[in-house]
């Protein structure tokens, strides 16, 4: 949905109402997707950054 009419504060409040469980599920799905679509080089770069 597009919410061009809402202010930045309204937008933040809307996102804050999403349950933490849903947010974590979304992050996990995004992480899995990125890992599937990444090249070996990209995965290696992310792994090195994660170790820091």
Please characterize this protein's 3D structure.
By secondary structure, this protein is mainly α. It is built from 3 helices and no strands. The protein has helices at residues 8-16, 20-37, 40-51. It is elongated and about 40 Å long. The relative contact order is 0.07. The model has no long low-confidence stretch (mean pLDDT 89).
Key structural traits:
52 residues; mainly alpha
SSE order: HHH
- Subunit arrangement of the protein: single chain
Rg, alpha carbons = 16 Å
Shape: elongated
Q: What is the typical, i.e. mean, pLDDT?
A: 89
Low-pLDDT stretches are none
Please give the share of residues in helix: over 70%
Structural class: mainly alpha
Main β-sheet: number of strands, strand sense, barrel status? none
Number of strands: 0
**Beta-strand content estimate:** under 5%
Number of continuous helical runs: 3
Distance between the termini: 37 Å
Give the helices and strands, then pairings:
Elements: H1 8-16, H2 20-37, H3 40-51
Q: In a nutshell, what does this entry contain?
A:
By secondary structure, this protein is mainly α.
């Amino acid at each position: 949905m597009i919410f061009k009419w809402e202010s930045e504060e309204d937008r933040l409040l809307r996102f804050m109402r999403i349950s933490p469980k849903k947010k974590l599920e979304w992050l996990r799905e995004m992480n899995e997707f990125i890992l599937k679509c990444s090249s070996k080089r990209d995965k290696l770069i992310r792994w090195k950054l994660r170790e820091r």
